[in-house]
Specification:
Number of domains: 1
Number of helices: 7
CATH architecture: Roll
Low-confidence stretches: none
Pfam family, one: AbiEii
Largest sheet: 5 strands, mixed
Number of strands: 7
Helix content: 25-40%
Shape: globular
Distance between the termini: 43 Å
Mean pLDDT: 85
Protein name: Nucleotidyl transferase AbiEii toxin, Type IV TA system
Keywords: Transferase
GO molecular function: transferase activity
Structural class: alpha+beta
Length: 221
């Protein structure tokens, strides 16, 4: 299934194959989280949510979630097994490890890493022969805001691979509120990136309204 899934992206080289595989891995991780009832207590937001569910025309790297209610002692550990099993069912080996906090904050993080060789994905027509025995070196950061600015609205969005399931997501106006906060209040020169401006332009061109009820709550966090 992974091979056919990758081929649907029509990658021309290893770099394009890596970008496609990263997105496939993101969707498989979402499937594992759904099986473990993660979306009973959290919602998906950020650039990857915009890419997967609203066809943003750029790839995105991380998986960002917000708890529906504050839970300071929340941990991703209880969901790791379900994610690993979801990949295993599709013939992929991954590792996942929770990031140890250096200082106290409201973000719980983990890293999902592919341990699969390109050869195991049967991509001989895409990956050069001398690269087939290397790992598909992809790392995805998973972050959960455990003390989020509440008041956001959610909706259920359908994914059809690796099976049909629903993901609880921020609505577009609330996704826009999060992006606007990033642009206005992140530290300049370090955290604000070109993709933030690109995404804001996408929202404006699409005529997406900013959730003015949710946006001020970001500022108070």
């Amino acid at each position: 299934m992974i091979k056919e899934w990758l081929e649907s992206y029509n990658p021309k080289n290893k770099e394009e194959a890596q970008s496609a595989l990263r997105e496939i891995m993101q969707e498989i991780a979402l499937a594992g989280l759904q099986r473990s009832n993660f979306f009973d207590k959290a919602a998906f937001y950020g650039g990857t949510a915009l890419r997967i569910f609203h066809n943003l025309d750029r790839f995105s790297e991380d998986l960002d979630f917000s708890l529906l209610q504050t839970e300071q002692d929340f941990s991703l550990e209880k969901y790791q097994h379900a994610i690993v099993n979801e990949f295993a069912s599709l013939g992929m080996t991954v590792s996942i490890s929770e990031k140890q906090k250096v200082k106290q904050n409201n973000i719980n993080s983990a890293f999902l890493k592919s341990e699969t060789l390109w050869r195991e994905l049967k991509l001989e027509t895409i990956i050069p022969q001398n690269g087939l025995d290397t790992k598909a070196n992809i790392k995805i950061k998973i972050e959960v805001d455990t003390e989020p600015p509440l008041g956001f609205k959610t909706e259920e969005k359908l994914l059809v691979k690796p099976f049909s399931f629903y993901v609880k997501c921020f609505t577009l106006p609330d996704l826009f509120a999060g992006k606007m906060h990033a642009l206005l209040f992140r530290k300049w020169g370090t955290n604000v990136k070109g993709r933030d401006w690109y995404d804001m332009e996408w929202y404006i061109k699409k005529g997406i309204k900013l959730d003015l009820g949710h946006f001020p709550r970001y500022r108070t966090k």
